[in-house]
Please model this.
Amino acid sequence: MNSRLSNWALNISPSPTLAVDSKAKALKAEGKDVCGFGAGEPNFDTPDFIKEACIKAIEAGKTKYIPAAGLPDLREALAAFYRDEKHIGGVKASDIIISSGGKFTCYLAILAVCGVGDEVVIPAPYWVSYPEMVKLAGATPVFVSCSDESDFKITPAQLEAAITPKTKMFILTSPSNPTGAVYSRDELKALADVAIKHDIFILSDEIYEFLTYDGVESVSPASFSAEAREHVIIASGFSKSYAMTGWRLGTLCAPSDVAAAVSKLQSQTTSNATTFAQYGALEVFKRPGEAKRAREEMLKVFDRRRITLLDGLNAIDGISCRRAKGAFYLFPNISKFGMSSSEFCAKILEKELVAIVPGVAFGADGNIRFSYAVGDDVISKGLERISRFCASL
Model:
């Protein structure tokens, strides 16, 4: 019997991170005291100066269609940011696309260059949506396992070994969701050299670029040379650095032909991202001092939570956790307990009302992911409950 649904719909998996967050919220709605570590969403409000600019845009009637690629002034501002702040030469406004969220930006980038018969190299652990996006484009994800011992980073030798004549793209995330790992300049340069050698694209997801710790710097592989720039597609946005997750604004900086293709795809799918929201985002570049202060205030809080959660997890017998250098995640290893990450997370939710995302969702079944974009009280109570749970195993 033929299915009423398409192969795309039948073969796609729902987002496990959103599923965990939804379960935690449902339990909270029932009056349960849940410690939720699932969602990758800052628990801060969007800075007032951004909200005020958006409100003014609405009041001024800036609620109509704009070009599919985005607000021209915002694209100009982003092009200048990539040239002046990220040191990427030759970026023009036409190389910038504003889309409806960073997730959609990544999908459009994959769709623009990958199709049936193509392969995409994805280091594991990976963000849960990458493989599904690749499959939706008709391409095949090729996973490369990266362990705790390597700080969850793919090596040039591993990348080289995974590339075949069918390889079209390599997805790179730094800072990383789910691990918090940040690649150094030298590490990125070596990976970019492999991509250039084999003439494949790097999809560089830089959504967490402003969230780094311990003096670590976030570098874009597009900044190394003109040749690297032609092989790198940058996906980013405003969600994580400015607590704008619900605004749904993603940004793409790409070689001219890729940007033009993405613009065409967007024109036939969503048209433009929400017009007045883009005026709010533009204020980030009009008032850089306030934008920097807002980022630094959040970063200071995230850093304190990072260390509290890191120290607390490593103090629990059976758990080992690497010191993440970016984003707002920790990815501890729980393999000593002799159970799958799904079983661990299901049991701790049932027994202690702690919601954590199982590492199997990210391609690493020996680990679990914590988001520390939560309140200090959640971290304190959560650590107490996790310790009690692990002691009972």
Summary: The chain has a mean pLDDT of 95. The chain has two domains: 7-46+291-392, 49-286.
